[in-house]
Write a structure and sequence with these properties.
It contains 1 helix and 11 strands, in the order ββαβββββββββ. By secondary structure, it is mostly beta strands.
């Protein structure tokens, strides 16, 4: 058993965790890579898909912007948590398929990068 101290909203808690089984995280990491891998569409652009279902709260780029791998494209809020959607590759934003306030599904195309 492991004992951890966590702080939530400024209040400290002591938490005891018991390991039940060791889980190999490699399959989960591989699944994430597949979800964000480059998908080339018919126009030659690469689609960036939403990794989660939620609501777009902020679009950080505009058409024509040059982006690097890891640059934040937009913010998707899910379960009161803001999640940054980053570019998995570099290029130029060709099209933005969503707008602020729009609900998106997981794996839905949201940005096209050329």
């Amino acid at each position: 058993m492991k004992i951890y101290k966590i702080k939530v909203n400024g209040k400290s808690y002591r938490v005891e965790l018991e390991e039940i089984e060791q889980v190999d995280s490699a399959p989960l990491e591989e699944k994430r890579k597949q979800e964000t891998k480059k998908i080339v569409n018919n126009d030659g652009g690469k689609e960036v898909v939403s990794p989660i279902q939620g609501q777009v709260t902020n679009v950080k780029v505009k058409v024509g912007d040059k982006v690097q791998k890891g640059d934040v494209l937009l913010i998707v809020e899910a379960m009161k948590l803001e999640n940054e959607v980053v570019s998995p590759f570099e290029g130029q934003v060709a099209e933005i398929l969503v707008s602020k306030g729009q609900n998106v599904k997981a794996k839905e195309p949201i940005v096209i990068i050329e």
